[in-house]
Specification:
mainly alpha
Length: 725
């Protein structure tokens, strides 16, 4: 009996839905088969979409917080818990404020315990202090990590807000329906803003809110502290629903886009003015001071017995990069709404294959993942860098060496002046030159990985952007043809003839060819997954414009013509603001790019060459003093000889500094891309692929040349000094 009542209930629901579909179709003038009443399945769509979207570090953070809450549940204060809950909702995380607080305390506690265990096992005070203080300091960023994630999410979402308003306004010009407009925007935007808009609709379907307007208003409140112009624009869009006059309704929609464009430019203007001081501070603290500090490090190491190479490695390869990265992220967190691009390979699955190295042989495509090539490059170069150590491990005799000429040796191992039973090295100039394989391993390995992953996709995007730059005028011409009463099928061929030998002309010609030769309709000629024009020109702006055309042309060529002309105007306005924003940031971005591409690797290379010379001179003096102190009648010199320690081989010193240069170039590239383009992952990968390879090679070339020249000078000075003595 219950089964029968359920069946009747389902049939009744279906009947009511069909009646509403018919009513909506009549009122909107939309064909019945295109009317969609979104139901419960979209809740599943949202959860699946969320699961695919959240990056790995956020899902791991979720798991870590939930595990920490089970082990040690610690409740934050009420005021802090409210702020944390706000950040959790912004990031769409399934955790609680208690879980985030527990995680922020448990992880540093583990570090402190590791430091104590390390001291018990090894007795090393340096690493004990590092783990204990590192663990205690780690509490500060972990306490703010949730806010850090929320800021990152806001920056990515705010980069898409201009486009979001553009999509909503474009759709609502021909169909005044807020829910369908939000759905249209969520389909064309990329994450994370698309996820936010899907949740707005999902909250209505799950009956959390009674209407789309209420759900949207609650979502907009989360942006009140950061992007007031986004809220104002959406409120103008909502107001357009209540306008009785069509002209006033359209004017209200136009005003909403104008508001967000004007406010975006004004906020970016203030950001650009306030950016110079933090960038200068970052450059001084992260680049200039650490690199200049390298000059005195050989003296510190030679005259302070307890300082080892791994102490410098901890300072330069862990502490300094973390500080620079943290300062950079704080600068990016204040960036206002922008107009950024998205990685089209994440939006279009067909383009994902271009993230690989594609080799075409005998009609077949061989796809090699860039990670394999990167690991291979790192492995080979790392092995080359280890050859002096491996040679010494095979033949441990310190007397064994390979003469390279000019008085230089490959290995240069020797007895310690402090402990004669210990062999130290390699001090040879050959080993120092071979040590450049370490920064090359990481710089080239990471650079090749990002270069392969982004190069082909970037070419497709550049082609699409070229089309987008011409597309506004092309749409205007298409709108004029439709306004003349021509059918869309003929209008495409007419515009293709006028715009021959342009990217836009090629796009319209492809649509026209699909219609004439393959007998397709306009919609299929554009959107067909195999032969559609959008396959060769993937762009969200173009795709959304064509969807507006398809929707509006059903209501007549005049309405379609007006819709396309308005889209053309919007694209021009957005492009104009984008160019003005780039002009604002030009000085700062050019300074940062010069630091990344030339200043940092050049200064580091010269300093390493000088440092190598100082180390060679001090090492040679220490050795000669030791020999003189052992000679008869030279007891006074023994006190002076005791001042010279073993020193650090240039081989190890350069390895630490070279890796630091690679780290700094990586961090500054991410920062400069974030300032210029916002959360544009594709451009970030492309810049990393360019900068990591070029800057690392430049550093190694300059450092190697300066090192060899200065060591030749140093050896001649030492020979002449000893001969005079």
């Amino acid at each position: 009996m219950p089964a029968e009542s359920d069946k009747i209930s389902t049939e009744e629901i279906q009947k009511v839905m069909e009646e509403y579909k018919q009513k909506i179709s009549t009122q909107l003038g939309t064909p019945l088969e295109e009317v969609r009443l979104r139901g419960a399945p979209s809740s599943i769509e949202y959860t699946q979409f969320k699961a695919e979207l959240l990056p790995a570090h956020m899902t791991w953070y979720e798991k870590g917080c939930n595990l920490a809450e089970k082990l040690v549940k610690m409740q934050p204060k009420k005021e802090k818990a409210a702020l944390m809950q706000e950040s959790i909702e912004i990031c769409h995380l399934n955790i609680t404020p208690a879980g985030a607080t527990s995680f922020a305390i448990l992880v540093p506690l583990i570090f402190v315990i590791l430091g104590i265990i390390q001291f018990i096992l090894t007795g090393s005070l340096f690493f004990t202090v590092f783990f204990v203080f590192g663990g205690l300091l780690l509490m500060i960023p972990l306490q703010r990590y949730l806010s850090f994630l929320a800021n990152g999410w806001r920056m990515k979402a705010s980069n898409q807000m201009v486009l979001c308003i553009f999509y909503v306004v474009t759709y609502m010009r021909h169909t005044s329906n807020l829910e369908l407009a939000i759905q249209f925007a969520s389909d064309h935007l990329s994450p994370p803003l698309s996820l936010d808009l899907k949740k707005v609709i999902w909250n209505v379907e799950t009956e959390k809110y009674e209407s789309v307007k209420e759900s949207l208003d609650m979502y907009l409140e989360t942006w009140r502290k950061w992007n007031l112009e986004f809220i104002e624009a959406f409120h103008l869009i909502e107001s357009s629903l209540y306008e009785g006059s069509e002209d006033r309704r359209l004017a209200m929609l136009d005003k909403s886009l104008d508001v967000i464009l004007e406010e975006t430019f004004e906020k970016m203007l203030h950001y650009a003015h306030n950016l110079k001081s933090p960038i200068t501070m970052l450059h001084m603290m992260g680049v200039i001071l650490p690199i200049l500090g390298l000059v005195i490090l050989p003296l510190v190491v030679s005259f302070m017995e307890g300082v080892k190479w791994y102490h410098i490695a901890v300072l330069y390869n862990i502490i300094f990069p973390v500080v620079v990265y943290w300062m950079g992220r704080n600068i990016l967190a204040t960036r206002p709404t922008g107009y950024g691009d998205t990685d089209i390979s994440e939006v279009d699955p067909e383009i994902k294959k271009y993230r690989n190295l594609i080799i075409r042989l005998f009609g077949f495509e061989i796809k090699i993942p860039p990670l394999i090539i990167s690991i291979l490059v790192i492995g080979i170069l790392f092995f080359i860098g280890l050859t002096p150590v491996l040679l010494h491990a095979i033949i441990p005799d310190p007397e064994f060496d390979i003469n390279l000429g000019f008085g230089f040796n490959l290995l240069g191992y020797r007895e310690s002046s402090i402990d004669p039973n210990r062999i130290i090295g390699p001090f040879g100039i050959g080993a120092s030159v071979v040590s450049f394989a370490f920064p090359l391993a990481f710089g080239l390995g990471i650079g090749i990985y990002y270069r392969i992953k982004s190069r082909n996709v970037m070419k497709i995007r550049e082609q699409s952007k070229k089309l987008e730059s011409e597309f506004a005028s092309a749409l205007f011409q298409l709108g004029n043809r439709l306004g003349d009463g021509l059918p869309a099928e003929i209008a495409f061929s007419k515009v293709a003839e006028v715009m021959e030998d342009t990217v836009s002309g090629n796009f319209f010609n492809l649509v026209s060819t699909n219609i004439r030769k393959l007998g397709m309709g306009v919609q299929e000629a554009i959107f067909n997954p195999r032969t559609g024009a959008l396959v060769k020109f993937p762009s969200n702006v173009i795709e959304s414009s064509m969807k507006v055309l398809i929707e509006s042309v059903k209501k007549g060529p005049k309405i379609a013509a007006q819709a396309l002309m308005n889209v053309s105007r919007y694209i021009k306005e957005i492009h104009k603001v984008d160019e003005r924003l780039k002009d604002l940031m030009a000085d700062i971005i050019s300074d940062m790019k010069s630091q990344i591409k030339f200043m940092t690797p050049a200064i580091s290379g010269i300093v390493i060459g000088i440092t190598s010379m100082i180390s060679t001179i001090l090492g040679s003096l220490g050795g000669q003093m030791q020999k003189l102190s052992q000679a008869e009648g030279a007891s006074r010199i023994s006190g002076v000889a005791g001042l010279f320690g073993d020193g650090i081989p240039t081989y190890l010193f350069q390895m630490v500094v070279g890796i630091y240069v690679v780290q700094i170039v990586y961090i500054l590239t991410i920062l400069s891309n974030g300032i210029e383009n916002g959360a544009d992952k594709l451009n970030e990968r492309y810049d990393l692929g360019q900068n990591m390879i070029k800057s690392t090679i430049l550093y190694c070339a300059i450092a190697m040349i300066v090192m060899v020249i200065f060591n030749i000078i140093a050896s001649k000075i030492m020979v002449s000094t000893l001969s005079v003595g």
